[in-house]
Write a structure and sequence with these properties.
- The protein is of the alpha+beta class.
- Helices cover 24% and strands 36% of the residues.
- It has helices spanning 42-50, 96-106, 111-124, 140-153, 170-187, 198-204, 222-227, 232-237; strands at 4-13, 16-26, 31-35, 57-62, 65-69, 72-73, 81-84, 158-162, 190-195, 207-212, 215-220, 241-249, 252-255, 260-262, 265-266, 274-279, 284-286, 297-307, 311-318, 323-329, 339-343, 350-352.
- The strands form four sheets. A six-stranded mixed beta sheet has the order 7-8-9-3-10-11, with helices on both faces. The protein has a six-stranded mixed beta sheet with strand order 14-13-12-16-22-15. Strands 2-1-4-5-6 form a five-stranded antiparallel beta sheet, covered by helices on one side.
- Helix 2 crosses helix 3, helix 2 (96-106) packs parallel to helix 4 (140-153) and helix 3 (111-124) crosses helix 4.
- The longest helix is centred in the middle third of the chain and has 18 residues, at 170-187.
- It is elongated.
- Bound molecules: adenosine-5'-triphosphate.
- Adenosine-5'-triphosphate (ATP) is lined by residues 13, 18, 36, 38-44, 196.
- It holds the Pfam family TOBE_2.
């Protein structure tokens, strides 16, 4: 049994289920990322967990105890959870120290206890020297660290983060991802982290839950989700890929234009056409091909080639007009207009169940 459990959780807005029968089990101390495009229901799921919304169906349990069900929900302040918002939500008229100790004061800790806990958390979040500053005197990254410190200092059982890094610039975002993971490794609070940024999810999560239109498409470790996507949606959303569709003959999928892909991995669709995912960097691009037609080879013409320092990005058009996106080592430089061969290694051709 997990520590935090969502069981058939459903939330409707105007008869439209934006969270639709979602079940998920989170172990104690796990960091779970809810990942998906805008509007897929991530924030609504988080708000249901926090208690800001009441479900229309299903329930939420923490440590085996039911905390939320239709018409029967524990108030947010009684859930022992801390939530961090996109907007930091710091008190502007309070110093960093006052912001951090505020929650402790509410919980009735003595001044000495407040000081001790705040000193520890400010040191861990590298804010000790800024303790007497006001939020307006801090950078975005520093403000976000204060909101983290404020959430952690109350020692919540569960930490909820809603796109916590989206207001930061790219460099700071990258730094803060590692910071969040470092703090998680230190405190091991059960954490649910909402993001639409796959790199953020890959860096921070033990478990990634990919959501699409209110349902869970796939849940797994970052490696599972990247290496073994089960659906076209997940393959496209995480990491970029080419999707080819065709009819299955044994292990081979025959696509339009004569391309035949032997698939060394994945699960074939139960019926109808099968989709095959091949990642951009798994395709080999060469000017020399096989003497006769062979599966997992295709002829095409370079439509676009971009030098990106460490590699080159290609668009190759097959004879039937299919665009293939491939990435090659930087030294493979073939100009637009040239005829090329593409090789799709069977062990990198992944059949998708749906
Ligand atoms: P984003 O990344 O853009 O924040 P999200 O995945 O977090 O997206 P939600 O905020 O959970 O998505 O919203 C899911 C759907 O529910 C959206 O279509 C949204 O418009 C709708 N929605 C959210 N809150 C309400 C509300 N209070 N009333 C009506 N519809 C709502």
């Amino acid at each position: 049994m997990g520590f935090l459990e969502l069981d058939g959780l459903t939330k409707k807005f105007r008869a439209n289920a934006v969270v639709d029968n979602v079940s998920l089990s989170v172990e104690k101390g796990q960091l779970v990322c809810l990942l998906g495009p805008s509007g897929c229901g991530k924030t609504t799921t988080l708000r249901l967990i926090a208690g800001f919304l009441e479900p229309d169906g299903g329930e939420i349990r923490v440590g085996g105890r039911r905390i939320s069900a239709p018409g029967d929900s524990l108030a947010p302040e009684r859930r022992n959870m801390s939530m961090i918002f996109q907007s930091y939500a710091l008190w502007p008229h309070m110093t960093v120290m006052e912001n951090v100790t505020y929650g402790l004061k509410l919980r009735g800790l003595t001044k000495a206890q407040q000081q001790e806990r705040a000193d520890t958390i400010l040191a861990v979040t590298k804010l000790a020297e800024l303790a007497q500053r006001y939020p307006g005197e801090l950078s975005g990254g520093q403000q976000q660290r204060v909101s983290l410190a404020r959430a952690l200092v109350v020692e919540p059982e569960t930490l909820l983060l809603d796109e916590p890094l989206s207001n930061l610039d790219a460099n700071l975002r990258e730094e803060m991802r590692f910071e969040i993971r470092r703090l998680h490794d230190k405190y091991r609070y059960t954490t649910v982290y909402v993001t639409h940024d796959q790199a953020e999810a890959m860096t921070t999560a033990d478990l990634i839950v990919v959501m699409n239109q209110g349902v869970i498409e796939q849940a797994g470790t970052p490696e599972d989700i990247y290496q073994r996507p089960r659906t076209e949606f997940v393959a496209r959303f995480i990491g970029g890929t080419n999707i080819f569709k065709g009819a299955r003959e044994g292990e081979v999928v025959r696509c339009a234009g004569g391309l035949a892909l032997r698939c060394g991995t994945g699960d074939f669709a139960a019926q109808g056409e099968t989709a095959v995912s091949v990642r951009h960097h798994d395709i080999r691009i060469t000017t020399v091909g096989p003497a006769s037609d062979e599966p997992n080879w295709a002829r095409g013409t370079v439509a676009r080639q971009t030098y990106l320092g460490s590699h080159r990005d290609y668009q190759v058009d097959l004879r039937d007009g299919t665009h293939v996106h491939a990435v090659s080592p930087a030294e493979v430089a073939i100009p637009p207009g040239e005829a090329v061969w593409l090789q799709f290694p069977p062990e990198r051709c992944r059949a998708l169940a749906s």
